[in-house]
């Protein structure tokens, strides 16, 4: 009996030992499986994270490539327009001057002397357009090469505008245009004088070009953190489809003026570049037959 009990007990102990071993193995296996599952989850998460980063990186590269292609397209269009200006428009003033000179040489006789003043006015207008075009081209090229950087100085805005009015006085008189300036005498601002002069010169020239028997008004408005120049004309205005394309980082071919003045579109393009280089903005409102209001802002510099 004693032996039977010992035998039975030993068997139970052996069975319990086997069960415990099996449970331990299962527990270990479950822990291993859980660990492996966690490792797989971590690897999967890392893989997904890496893929997402790669996708973001690829998207950034794609966006950059698209942007560069767009900029290259605009640059090529601008280059083509510049070549057109150099090939055609730069010759126009000299061709016109030759034609006027030939007309003068044939008609400069006593019966025709009354037209001398008109011809001289035409010579001045054409020469002014040619000089303006050359100045714009040089400024643009310097800007593209990075040689132009704003150099703020204090100057009288009223005096600057009066200097420009003297430049355009003859051309405006020939077209019966009055040039007006509405700003207090001694109005001092601080900005790059040459850049501001070039912007105003192009906007005033543009106003005279598309106006006849009217006026071009220049105003200065002081705001909290900026100065705003206005160049307002009573000319033919701008068509909506052209208005939408102005100041959009591209050259917009200029229409013929009211006195058949030619244009390149470079002046407004350059005005935008010079304004933005001083951290300013430029904009325009216009309706066909109701004139145009060009404005640009320059931040106050202390």
UniProtKB/TrEMBL annotation:
Its EC number is 2.7.13.3. Residues 51-85 form a coiled coil. Keywords: Coiled coil, Kinase, Phosphoprotein, Transferase, Two-component regulatory system. CDD domains: HisKA. GO terms for molecular function: phosphorelay sensor kinase activity. InterPro entries: HATPase_C_sf, HATPase_dom, His_kinase_dom, HisK_dim/P_dom, HisK_dim/P_sf, Sensor_HK_Regulatory, Sig_transdc_His_kin-like_C. PROSITE patterns: HIS_KIN (PS50109). Residues 85-302 form the Histidine kinase domain. It catalyses: ATP + protein L-histidine = ADP + protein N-phospho-L-histidine. This is histidine kinase.
